[in-house]
Specification:
By secondary structure, this protein is mainly alpha-helical. The protein folds into two domains: 19-63, Arc Repressor Mutant, subunit A (Orthogonal Bundle), CATH 1.10.10; 72-209, Orthogonal Bundle (Tetracycline Repressor, domain 2). Helices cover 68% and strands 0% of the residues. It contains nine helices and no strands. The protein has helices at residues 19-37, 44-51, 55-61, 65-89, 94-110, 116-120, 128-153, 157-181, 187-202. α4 packs antiparallel against α5 (94-110) and α5 (94-110) crosses α8 (157-181). The longest helix is centred in the middle third of the chain and has 26 residues, at 128-153. The protein is elongated.
Length: 218
């Protein structure tokens, strides 16, 4: 999952930090190690060394490797959901909403931190607490999108949610494919292509006030 080497980019040992700042520093270092090595290969020794702290300091903040991983995962999942919520709230124009939401997901996958690997490519999905967090990304972002679809089209909850999950899933899968397989396409080009595809599909369900009955067109 990367080319992390234990001796590279190690932070120098420093003085005492406020607890909140120390926690943020440890999470940043842990993210680098987990993204590069995966959960199973990563060791608390590696993370402590990367952060420039002793293992006792690391354990003062996180009792074990799983606790540290879950804290990172929770932070990453919350960020994705918040980004999508912000994108949906940024405009009332649904075409622009589709583009903004897909770009939010692409931006997250393209970020230099590689944090998306914890969410979408975790090697620990057999752990219930991890699986719950990963599923939360799809379910919560889809619910945000479903609310817009339901309010605009008058479609039933089940239909709106199915369409929303389909849109979110398409964005997630295509973003990861773009990152690994399509070096010749820029981020802006990729989001424009996928946004265009999504909009051509979702616009087929007109707003409730544009057809009688509020359901999907015949």
């Amino acid at each position: 999952m990367g080319d992390y080497a234990g001796g590279s980019n190690v932070r120098p040992r420093g003085g005492r930090l406020p607890r909140r700042e120390r926690r943020a520093q440890l999470l940043e270092s842990a993210l680098e190690v987990f993204v590069a090595q995966g959960y199973h290969a990563a060791a608390m020794d590696d993370i402590a060394e990367r952060a420039g702290v002793s293992k006792p300091v690391l354990y003062q903040h996180f009792p074990g490797k799983l606790d540290l991983y879950l804290a990172l995962l929770d932070e990453s999942c919350t960020m994705i959901i918040a980004n999508c919520r912000e994108a949906l709230a940024s405009t009332d124009d649904n075409k622009l909403r589709v583009a903004a939401t897909i770009k939010a997901l692409y931006d997250y996958v393209a970020a230099d931190t590689g944090a998306f690997r914890l969410v979408f490519e975790s090697d620990l999905t057999s752990e219930p607490a991890v699986r719950l967090q990963v599923e939360r990304v799809t379910s919560d972002t889809a619910e945000l999108v479903a609310e817009v679809i339901r309010d605009d089209t008058g479609l039933p909850d089940e239909a709106s949610r199915l369409l929303a999950v389909s849109l979110v899933g398409m964005a997630q899968v295509s973003a990861r494919f773009w990152l690994s397989e399509t070096a010749g396409i820029t981020l802006d080009q990729a989001t424009a292509l996928v946004s265009g595809l999504a909009w051509r599909g979702i616009r087929g369900y007109p707003k409730a006030d544009e057809h009688e009955g509020g359901g999907a067109p015949a």
